[in-house]
Specification:
Radius of gyration: 28 Å
Structural class: alpha/beta
Number of domains: 2
CATH topology of the largest domain: Hypothetical protein af1432
CATH superfamily of the largest domain: Hypothetical protein af1432
Order of helices and strands: EHEHEHEHEHHHHHHHHHHH
Helix content: 40-55%
Keywords: Phosphoprotein
Protein name: Two-component system response regulator
Number of strands: 5
GO molecular function: phosphoric diester hydrolase activity
Mean pLDDT: 89
InterPro entries: CheY-like_superfamily, Cyclic_di-GMP/3'3'-cGAMP_PDE, HD/PDEase_dom, HD_GYP_dom, Sig_transdc_resp-reg_receiver
Pfam families: HD_5, Response_reg
């Protein structure tokens, strides 16, 4: 039916007659889709638009209903979909197992039409209520999240204003960081966290005296000792928190000057002992620093900076990330052009 706004129920059973019975019962009230195997059920459930509820048989050849439920609950796309087991198994142990796997209800065969309709109606109402509550929570926390992210960005820019007039460095390198993490195939939620944490990488510069940070020439040994304290200063400024965003910000601030071969600071970590977040930020940070004018140097050309990144593969940088950097360089340059320094 074109424009049919009714809720959709997916009926899963390897016996076509059972599907016909349930479909006939449900179709006057809901849209119905059917699958005769666990594999097909998962395929339908993962396809947009998702069904609103799944009626799932247990005893099926190949992938049984228990395994289908496990797969549904393990997948972020389908884990919230309500599942009702409909099965000939009537032992208490069977029902307990189904509910433990995340099913919301358990109906035994032969089914009673009034019971099926009542249970389906109840679970759909609860599912709708949960979605409305989740939407309200998201709306009410959106302002708080936005404020927190803005504070983090502003703190990151505060550090950059000490040696960069516009603060555009943190914007560019955050976008470079996102591009690298996406190219690596990282989880979208983690990529977003990384993008928002990256601006805090040099917050520790707030603790470095201007006479060192803005010195228009090479630092002497004593000045380098002080400069190398800024990762720890940054970690101390951010502190220890339960927030995933602040934990990642601290991890980056503390470790983004570590080097793949172990010659970095402050801890001399090497290779994969360096957190992935810091390895990604290091590539993004250094490329942008090289191609930007600073008080102590001229801006390098893109070719010079890219050559340096390749030369430092396996020395300063994670080789896999340098390879990815080369692959996405056109996208990097698009970001650079969008947020180019003026003057």
């Amino acid at each position: 039916m074109t424009g049919d706004r009714r809720q959709t129920i997916l009926v899963v059973d390897d016996v076509p007659d059972n599907i016909d019975v349930l479909s006939g019962l449900l179709r006057p009230h809901y849209r119905v889709r059917a699958a005769t195997s666990g594999e097909r059920a998962l395929q339908i459930a993962r396809t947009l638009p998702h069904p609103d509820l799944i009626l799932l048989d247990i005893m099926m050849p190949g992938m049984d209903g228990y395994q289908v439920c496990r797969e549904l609950k393990a997948d972020p796309r389908t884990r919230r979909l309500p599942v009702i087991f409909i099965t000939a198994r009537s032992e208490v142990e069977d029902e307990a197992k189904g509910l433990a796997l995340g099913a919301v209800d358990y109906i035994t065969k032969p089914v009673s039409p009034p019971i099926v309709l009542a249970r389906v109606r109840t679970q759909l109402a609860l599912y709708d209520q949960n979605r409305r509550l989740e939407r309200k929570v998201r709306e009410r926390t959106a302002e708080l999240v936005t404020t927190r992210l803005e504070i983090i960005r502003r703190l990151g820019r505060a550090a950059e204003f000490k040696d960069n007039e516009t603060g555009l460095h943190v914007i560019r390198m955050s976008h470079y960081t996102r591009l690298l993490a996406e190219a690596l195939g990282s989880d979208a939620e983690w990529v977003d966290l990384l993008f928002n944490a990256a601006p805090m990488h040099d917050i520790g510069k707030i603790g470095i005296p201007d006479r060192i940070l803005l010195k228009p020439g090479p630092l002497d040994q004593e000045e380098w000792v002080e400069m190398r304290r800024h990762p720890q200063y940054g970690a101390d400024i951010i502190g220890e928190h339960d927030s995933a965003l602040l934990r990642l910000s601290r991890e980056i601030a503390l470790n983004h000057h570590e080097r793949w071969n172990g010659s970095g600071y402050p801890a001399g970590l090497r290779e994969t002992a360096i957190p992935l977040s810091a390895r990604i930020v290091a590539v993004a940070d250094v490329f942008d620093a090289l191609t930007t004018r600073r008080p102590y140097k001229r801006a390098w050309t893109t070719e010079q900076a890219a050559d340096y990144m390749r030369e430092q593969s396996g020395i300063q940088f994670d080789p896999e990330l340098v390879t990815l950097f080369d692959r996405i360089l056109p996208q990097i340059l698009e970001v650079r052009s969008r947020y180019e320094e003026s003057g």
